[in-house]
Amino acid sequence: MKMFYFTDPMCSWCYGFSPVVKKLKENYPGIDLEIISGGFSPGSKQVVDNEYRAFLEYHWHNVHARSGQYFDHSMKFVSENFCYDTEPSSRALTVAQQLLPGQEFELLSLMQKSFYAEGKDITDGLVLATLAEEMGIEKNTFLESFKSEEMKLKTQQGFQFSRQLGVQGFPTLLTLEGGKVKVISPGFQSYERIKTVVDDWISNIIAPGLNNGQLCTENSCGC
């Protein structure tokens, strides 16, 4: 069973959604969850001036209220060189998928915590390399891959895939079966609401396969 999770390390609602995804992964190990950086604001030149800080504050308070996730409102990552460019952190996630397959969600969570709770600048390649090192990726190995044209291209392909499937916001959970998109979660949802949709999706996949051409009623079986 395949499911796609479109996210962005610098999307605050994705940070709020992270515990939900973690619980989903733990409770549904049979789901093959592929994490894709959808591209919230790659290449952005947006600086964090007073107006944009107020914008972030407003959304961070909303995310905290619904998810309980902690935010460091001092925003220590802000500097005269900082722009809200989400491409570098998205590319770091792409690198992790290549060098540390199966653990990209852990790096995503680490980047989110570092940015939102600790105020680290995850647009900085050296900061990202240090976080990758915590995950077991040698720093120079990470940087070599991070700076490569191959990883830049793969990251862009993730952005393009997001647009092709009509993803309009993050986070988004969806499935793709027979060329048809089924949205599991358009944006932040509680685990309880997600569970209901996932259970229904799974039952619709499994039930037809159980029949095998046989017909069973409440009191008899036939063919």
Task: Note down, in words, how this protein is organized.
A four-stranded mixed beta sheet has the order 2-1-3-4, sandwiched between helices. The protein has a two-stranded antiparallel ribbon with strand order 5-6. It is globular. A hairpin with a 2-residue loop joins β3 and β4. The chain has eight helices and six strands, in the order βαβααααααββαββ. The chain has helices at residues 12-27, 50-67, 87-99, 104-117, 125-134, 139-146, 149-164, 191-211; strands at 2-7, 32-37, 172-177, 180-186, 215-216, 221-222. It has 223 residues and is α+β, with helices and mostly antiparallel strands. Residues 209-223 have low confidence and may be disordered. α1 runs antiparallel to α4 (104-117). Helix content is 52%, strand content 13%.
Write the layout of secondary structure elements.
Layout: E1 2-7, H1 12-27, E2 32-37, H2 50-67, H3 87-99, H4 104-117, H5 125-134, H6 139-146, H7 149-164, E3 172-177, E4 180-186, H8 191-211, E5 215-216, E6 221-222
Parallel strand pairs: 1-2
Antiparallel strand pairs: 1-3, 3-4, 5-6
Helix pairs in contact: 1-2, 1-4, 3-4, 3-5, 3-7, 5-6
